[in-house]
Amino acid sequence: MPVSSATSSLPLRMLHDRILVSLDAESSERRSASGIVIPATAVMGKRLAWADVVAIGPNVRQVALRDRVLFDPEDRLEVEIAAKDYVLLRERDVHAVAAPETAEADTGLYL
Fold it and tell me: Keywords on this record (predicted)?
């Protein structure tokens, strides 16, 4: 399966059910509800991470290019390609795919 235009410079072709994702820049540190920055090194409970799909293998069924996926950061393989870090996952390691944003979701209910 061809690689997306955003990653056409990547010298690879994904195989089987593999998914290559790029981690969010904000996944390393978080903010509390009051705006306090919580560094990535802070000890927290087990927390899932979001990432953007940049390449998929030919046997991937439920995930598409440019989807946002939720996965366990402890079950991952990291790879560096063209001086950028990516995470390699199997499709079964993905817990959820983010629903696309719609204009209707922003209107709210009026009584």
Answer: Chaperone
